[in-house]
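Hey, resending since the last one bounced:
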Amino acid sequence: MIKVDDCLVSEDVIEQAFACNVLACKGVCCIEGDAGAPLEPEEISVIQKNLETIKTEMDETGLELLAKDGFAEKDPFDLMDVTTCKENKECVFVVRKDGILNCAIEIANKKNDFGFPKPISCHLYPIRVDKYSEYYALNYHRWSICADACVKGKEEDIKVYQFAKDALERKFGKDWYSNLEVAVKEYLTS
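The structure tokens again:
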């Protein structure tokens, strides 16, 4: 683990190649999994505030589920807030465009720039962040459905932390990311 401010970053985040290849995977990460996307408490209010705009990008099934169950629920395993899921396990905000799964929040934000690209847990992927009392732990989540992303990352020489730069800056700040880059250089030359 590499320490950056109050974060412990696993070596895999620095060493492993990764660049999302949505043309190959078709966005299946928005379906697979045990529950919906984890939501930070403040994200619920941001989504709620922009929900009318987001709804313009949602599909009929998502809108029906939204009207019935809302967009967030408690994960029964860890009682964390997560996005509600359709019966086929798709996140309530998933929409299909040209055979690829997309996020209605992300589409709405690109069109209207309300400053919230998507839940931070989705934006950070494949990095998973765990909060402990005195630090955050950042780990690379290996998932077979992302095999093409690993190949593309290797071809383009992009590491996990580089792929997730915008999300890491959003979560921890630009100064933190600069400190990470310094720590990576030190780690790779030691």
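The CA atoms of residues 38 and 82 lie 4 Å apart.

Sorry for the duplicate.
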